[in-house]
Amino acid sequence: xxxxxxxxxxxxxxxxxxxxxxxxxxxxxxxxxxxxxxxxxxxxxxxxxxxxxxxxxxxxxxxxxxxxxxxxxxxxxxxxxxxxxxxxxxxxxxxxxxxxxxxxxxxxxxxxxxxxxxxxxxxxxxxxxxxxxxxxxxxxxxxxxxxxxxxxxxxxxxxxxxxxxxxxxxxxxxxxxxxxxxxxxxxxxxxxxxxxxxxxxxxxxxxxxxxxxxxxxxxxxxxxxxxxxxxxxxxxxxxxxxxxxxxxxxxxxxxxxxxxxxxxxxxxxxxxxxxxxxxxxxxxxxxxxxxxxxxxxxxxxxxxxxxxxxxxxxxxxxxxxxxxxxxxxxxxxxxxxxxxxxxxxxxxxxxxxxxxxxxxxxxxxxxxxxxxxxxxxxxxxxxxxxxxxxxxxx
Length: 394
Fold this sequence. Notes:
alpha/beta; Rossmann fold; four-stranded parallel sheet; 11 helices; Ferrochelatase; lyase; Ferrochelatase_C; ferrochelatase activity; metal ion binding
C-alpha cells in the first residue's frame, strides 16, 4: 500500500514545541520474574475484569514453561543500557529511568525516585510502536494515575514521544530481518514459493476501530458529521499503520525477492470468545496457506522485543502449526536492541529535547501517515472509560 493518496492528517499538526527535559522514562508493560510472581502479575493485568484464578492458571502455563520468567523485563534492562550508551555518545545529559505498568519497577515508584533525584521534566519513551488503547492511551492513563497516587502533580511534568511505527529506526531493522528470513529459506532449498506473515497482537475490534484520531478514516475519507455509521471497518489506525509498514518492508525486498505474497495476521487474543477481535488468527492463517507454499517467514512486526507473546505464541504454537503441515518456517527477530532502533529512539528524544538553544532533530517518517502526533486528542484510542492522561489535548 502506498500512502501518497492520503491527505495530511490533523494528527500531523499536533506537534509540541521542543523543550529542555531532565530525564527519560522508559515505559514498559512488565512481567513476572519467578513462579511465585505469575498469578499476582496476571491479577494486575486483569484487575477489574472479574477473571477468576482458574482462568489465569491457563495463561500462567505459558509463563511456567519458562520458569515463571517473562523475558520482557530483562529485555527492557538491556534496552535501558543501550539507550544510556547512545545518549552518552551524543553528549546528552539525560539519565534513563525504567518503569512498568503491571510489575516492578512500577510507575509510581519510579516517579518518586526520579523526583527525589531532582528531576521535574520527564520525557516518556513507550515500548510500543503503534496506535491503540493498550499500546498508547493505557500507558498515558497509568502514568497519570501514578502521578496522582504519588501526589506529585505540579511537581513533575511528563510528556510522551510520538508513535514511531514508521520511523526509519523501526522500519529498517524489520526490512533486514525479513530479507534475512527469505535468504534463509532460499539457502535451505525452501525459497521457491515463499510467503511472509506479519504478526501483531490481536485486540478487540471495537478498540481497533477506535484507535488513532477521529477526524478521518485511515483511507483518508472524512468521518460523517454526527456519526451515523461505524467510522472505519478495517481495524482503525492500528491496522492501517501495520499494513503500511508491512508494505514498506515488502517493497524494500522486491529487488531480491520480487512478487512474494504476504499477509497481516493476529495473535494472542484473550478474553470472552463471543467478543469480536481482529482476525485472522496466525495459526488459522498458516493452515489456510496454499499447498504449494514452499516456506514461511514469520515477522513479529507488532512487537519491539521477543517477549512472551513472541516466545510462546510464535516460537511454540505457530512453529508447531507449521510443523504439522510440513511447512519450513523461519521466525525472524524483533528490533530489540538493534543499533538502528536504539538510535531511532534517541532521535525521537531529540525531536523534543533541546539544550543550550540547539535545534530539534528533523522529524523522520517513511510514510505519509507520519510523523505521528506528539499529543493525542481527547477521543484518541478511547478505551474502557474516560480517564485522565498525559500527552493529551482537547
